[in-house]
Amino acid sequence: MINMPHRTIMILMAAALTLASCGTLYNPQKLPKPDAAEDQQAIPLQIVALTSEVAAKANMSPFKRRVVVGSDLRGAARLVDEHSFIDLRPPASGAAPTYKIGVGDTLQFARLMPQINSAGAATDEYTVRSLPVTSEGYISIVEVGRVDVVGKTISEAEAAISAALLRSGVDPRFEVSVQGFNSQKIFYGGVTKPSSIPFTDRPTSLSEVMTTAGVTLEPGADKVVKIFRGSEEYRLSARDILTSPQQPVYYLQGGDRVYLENMYYRPETVVLTGEVGSQSMYAISAEARQTLSDALFSRAALALFTSDSSQIYLIRRNGGSAVAYHLDGSNPVRLSIASEIELRPQDVIFVAEQPVTRYNRVMQQLLGALSLSQDLRDSVQEEL
Asked: Residue 162's pLDDT is what?
């Protein structure tokens, strides 16, 4: 049995690994053919030349941000599309609702009645009384008895009281107003401490309630505002309500329940792969709307000596299929189109390699193997 020195064994192992690498370690990436059959689910691929018209059409696709819903760390996060979660079902905007009297309210009733003043002269003065609205929905006026007022506006209640006074032959000169708003409330809760505010004859907007509740927005996050009104549910974005000057005013109604739920935006990225300087993820945002040009040049994505700039692809999924927008970056005029197409979350930017690149890499590996073989022969000769 031949005893080989330790240095010789190490060189033999390195040579074997290097020679093996010539056929297995280098595996260049290639854009798959549209009809390629693979073990994974087949995704139909359409390759389209990138032009200004194509870029404009591609930019019409929505920027679908994904959000993590809820903040309970004990369970799996729900990762959903922003628009499918909010669903943007706003209530009607415009005029504020008119207050209608309810059970538990207190009306202030002031009737003009003849009086004798301190000088003994006859005069008319208002006599003010507080009239609670009973559970049966009426108020009691001494001169006329019961008057139904529940569900009526102040104007409608005035008309009903006036008719009752006239039927009883009583002077109908009076004033009525709501003294105590006790029948209806607006409730809010969720990420804020549950509470309520009274619903009055003064219009109450959704933004006012959110300010009263102390709602704040964190960077990279939003809140879903849900309004439950009877059997209806409406949804809005808290960020839109609090920050957008174009947002209409939404007035709340008595009995509305406002529920707020945290919604955290997941950082959105595109993938840089192929013959690029570094296989990496490139961050994008809905506000900045980065383009293909931003990704290619702000990160020095193109591998200067090995990439084929005529074979740049922006791959975008659309349901069960995908489109590869082909850009010939070797032409400076065509390269300018890269600044026209916007990136979308989960896009893939693929850059092909130059034909000579694979040859050069294989030759480097072979030369490395030959060098190790020479070192091995020299070592064996020295030891013999």
From this structure: 92
Q: How confident is the model at residue 159 (pLDDT cuts 50, 70, 90)?
A: very high
Backbone φ, ψ for residue 19 (5° rounding)? -65, -40
* Residue 48 CA, distance from chain mean position: 30
pLDDT for the residue 198? 93
CATH top class, domain 106-180: alpha beta
pLDDT band for position 242 (cuts 50, 70, 90): confident
Domain 45-64+267-353 has CATH 3.40.50.300: no
Q: Does domain 67-97+184-265 have CATH number 1.25.40?
A: no
DSSP 303-345: -TTTEEEEEEEEEEEETTEEEEEEE-TTSHHHHGGGGTSBP-T
CA dihedral over 114, 117, 119, 120, signed as positive or negative? positive
What tokens appear for 232 in the block? 């209806």
Looking up tokens 């840089």 gives 272
Q: Has residue 309 got a pLDDT over 50?
A: yes
Separation CA 345–CA 247 (nearest Å) = 26
Domains 67-97+184-265 and 106-180 share a fold: no
